Amino acid sequence: MTDLDRIDIAVIGAGLGGAAAAALLTDAGFSVDVFEQAPEFVRLGAGIHIGPNVMKIFRRIGLEDRLAAIGSHPDHWFSRDGMTGEYLSRIRLGDFSLREYGAPYITIHRGDLHAEQIGVLDKNRLHFDHGLTDLEERDDHVLLTFANGRQIAAGLVIGADGINSIIREKLLGIEKPRFSGWVGHRALVDMDKLRATGLDYERCVKWWWSQSRHIMAYATTNDASEYYYVTGVPVDSWDHETGYVDSSRDEMAAIFGDGAHPMVQGLIDSTTEVTKWPFWNRDPMSLWSSGRLCLLGDACHPMRPHMAQGAGMAIEDAAVLTRALSLTGAADYRNAFTIYENARKERATMVQTISNANTWLKEPEDPAWVYAYDPMTVALH
Ligand SMILES: Cc1cc2nc3c(=O)[nH]c(=O)nc-3n(C[C@H](O)[C@H](O)[C@H](O)COP(=O)(O)OP(=O)(O)OC[C@H]3O[C@@H](n4cnc5c(N)ncnc54)[C@H](O)[C@@H]3O)c2cc1C
Fold this sequence. Notes:
The protein contains twelve helices and 18 strands. It has a domain at about 5-175 and about 280-370: FAD/NAD(P)-binding domain, CATH 3.50.50. With about 375 residues, it is of the alpha/beta class. The strands form three sheets. Strands 1, 2, 7, 8, 9, 10, 17 and 18 form an eight-stranded mixed β-sheet that branches. A hairpin with a 4-residue loop joins strand 8 and strand 9. It binds flavin-adenine dinucleotide. The site of flavin-adenine dinucleotide has 34 residues, from helix 1, strand 3, strand 11 and helix 10.
C-alpha cells in the first residue's frame, strides 16, 4: 500500500468550499487530501462578493490581507431602480464594515480568489484529475473510486462536490437539481467603452426592475480597472445540455434596454462577451451527514446567487466543521457532524430561502445578522 491508499480525511471537490475546508483542517492539524475532478482551474470571467463574515475565515487561513489588496472595497451596496435610478436602499460597507462587522467587504474576480485559496494548499495533497465515481462505506473507512481507476480508503469524507454532489446522492438518493426558472447573464465589460460614457460607476450596485429582475454590477479589482455584471432574469425553461450558453449585447438590450437608466444602458453598450447560466435549486435537505460522510456548501444547500452568499455559506460550513472536529477529535466524528449541523442548518437555510426569494437589500434593512456573524467564534453545542 502506498501512503495515498489509506488516508485520514478526503475532501471531494476543490471549489471555494472544498479549498477552504482543506486549508482550515490542515491548519487545525488534521491530515487532509483533496480530490478534484478538473485537470486544472482556469480564470473564468466572473466576479464574487466576499462579505466580512467570510473574510474572518480568510484571516485564519492567512489570506485576508492579500484578498483585501486584490479586491475592490465598495463603500456601499446600492439598490437602484433600473429605469429611474432612484435609490431603493444604501447599505454601508467600506470602513463601516470594518468597524461594525469586524472585517472588510470586498468584491473580487472569482478566479483570483480561487487561485489564492488553491495557492495555500499543499500541492502534494491536492489531486487534480480525480473525479469521484463511487464510494462505499465500510467498517473503519470509506472506499473511494475515481474515474482514473484509483481507489483510496479514507477515514472521513467531506463532500464539497457542488450541486450535483455524488456524496449527496449516496446519502439521499438520485435526484437531479430543479431548474429555478431563472438565468443569470455574466460579463466583464469593455472598460474603454464604459469609461467613454463619462458616467461615474459605483463600485457595487444592484439595478432592479419589477418581478425582482435585476443587474448586479461591481468592480472586481482594487483599482476598479475591471467591472463585472451578473443578472437575474426569470425564463420559462432551460433547454440546453451545457452548463452555460453564449448570450449577446442584443439579448441584453432586449431584456433591459427599453427605457433603462443611462448607467444601465452604458453597461449594455459596453458588453462584448456575455454568457448565460441557468440557476438550479434544491429544497433544504433532511440530512447533512451519515456515518463517515458529511456535506458542505452547494452539495448541501444550493441556492440562487442573489444574496451573494452561496460561497460564503460553503466557507462558513468549512470553518464550523473544522471547529467541530477539533472539539471532538476525528475519532468522534459522529458527534462532530451533529455539532456542525446544529450550528449551521438554521443559518444556511435562512440564507438559502432569502436568496431564492431575491429580496435581499431591495429595500432598506439591517444586514448585520449576515455580516457580523463570526464562524470562528460562534457557540458550538
Ligand atoms: C452567477 C453566480 C454568482 C454568484 N455570486 C456569488 C457571490 O457573489 N458570493 C458568494 O458567496 N457566492 C456566489 N455564488 C455562489 C457560489 O458560486 C457557490 O455557492 C459556491 O461556488 C459553492 O462552492 P462549493 O465549493 O460548495 O461548490 P463548487 O464551487 O461548485 O465546487 C465544487 C467542486 O467540486 C468539483 N467536483 C464536482 N464533482 C466532483 C467529483 N465527483 N469528484 C471530484 N470533484 C468534483 C467541481 O469540479 C468543483 O471544483 C454565485 C453563483 C453563481 C452561479
